Amino acid sequence: MTLNLFQPILPLALLTVALLLTGCSTVTIAPGGQKTAHTEPHYEAQKPSYLLGLMGDNRVDVSAICSPYSVRQMQAQRTIHNALAAAFSAGIYTPHTVKVWCDTPEEN
User: What is the 3-state secondary structure (H, E, C) of 16-78?
Assistant: First the structure.
């Protein structure tokens, strides 16, 4: 009878590798080179995508969200919650968070 010491550690090691591969990221776009907004966004939604982000319609109509004002900043984030969902589904379900800030008069 052989005792394999690595057998109980294997699932934890695979989960750790999966989490490290998914990671967190943020992409911020500020039209006109404006300073990055640090207030609460006017719009925030979880957008689903599938197969490591290759499939899914994740368009957001920022003009309709901010109308009649202009868009101050847009941001796409992959948070730790998104990364966990992607890791536990083996990359089949890979959500991300979308945020939009509008250039409203009270913020100028």
Answer: HHHHHHHCCEEEEECHHHCCCCCCCCCEEEEECCECCCCECCCCCCHHHHHCCCCEEEEEEEE
Q: Which pLDDT belongs to residue 54?
A: 82
Distance CA 103, CA 106 (A): 9
Contact present, 28 and 73 (Cβ < 8 Å): yes
pLDDT at residue number 51? 85
Q: Where are the domains of the chain?
A: 24-107
Q: Which residue positions in the chain have pLDDT lower than 50?
A: 1
Query: In sequence order, what are the beta bridge partners of 50?
Result: 55, 93
Task: Check: CB of residue 62 under 8 Å from CB of residue 68.
Answer: no
